[in-house]
Amino acid sequence: MISRVPGNTRSGFRDRPWFAVVFLATVLTIGLWLPGRISVTSSPSLDHRVFFLTRARPPYELGSYLLFRKKTDHAISDLLLKKLGCGPGDRLTVSNDAYFCNKRFLGRALEQDSMGRRLPHFIFNGTIPADNLFMIGEHERSYDSRYFGFIDAESVLKTAHPLW
């Protein structure tokens, strides 16, 4: 005869039917919530490839990664992910195709893209106006504000946090 000690039952919470319902609901919720919050980029424009996206909340800090909408002739998509190189109130200086934000070197503009097409250069010397952002990639061949100019802060969709 098997005796049971009161209060010492072996059936755990996994044996209860509600566990399966809660587990399934959790998996479905995460499965529906997560895809809109992860961005994977294959572009060499940035040092990171996987980003977690959160709601955009200005003011943005220099170096923040931002997902924004910008219609360009050279980009495959109108959604771009770049780093904030220079923001409102900062001083942007261009000298001999070299770009500086508050005297900090951002990069040089190239004369041609990888297809041999001539690239336009954005030239601006002065204080960046309110609601304008100068976006920069981390790769020397990144197609960014050096070529298409400022973006409007209203075009920022998400803040991107590098995961990998």
Write the layout of secondary structure elements.
Layout: H1 17-33, E1 38-40, E2 50-55, E3 65-69, E4 79-86, E5 91-95, E6 98-101, E7 104-108, E8 126-127, E9 132-136, H2 145-148, E10 151-152, E11 156-162
Antiparallel strand pairs: 1-2, 2-11, 3-4, 3-11, 4-9, 5-6, 5-8, 6-7, 9-10
Q: What does this protein look like?
A:
The protein is an alpha+beta fold. Helices cover about 15% and strands about 30% of the residues. The protein has two helices and eleven strands. The N and C termini lie far apart (about 60 Å). The strands form two sheets. It has a seven-stranded antiparallel sheet. Strands 7-6-5-8 form a four-stranded antiparallel sheet, with no helix packed on it.
Rounded mean pLDDT score: 85
Secondary-structure class: alpha+beta
Radius of gyration: 24 Å
What characterizes the major β-sheet?
7 strands, antiparallel
Low-confidence stretches: none
Tally the helices: 2
Cα-to-Cα separation, first versus last residue: 59 Å
Based on Cα principal axes, name the global outline. elongated
- Percent of residues in β-strands: 25-35%
Helix content: 10-25%
How many beta-strand elements? 11
Placed side by side, the strands forming the largest sheet appear as: 1-2-11-3-4-9-10
H and E order: HEEEEEEEEEHEE
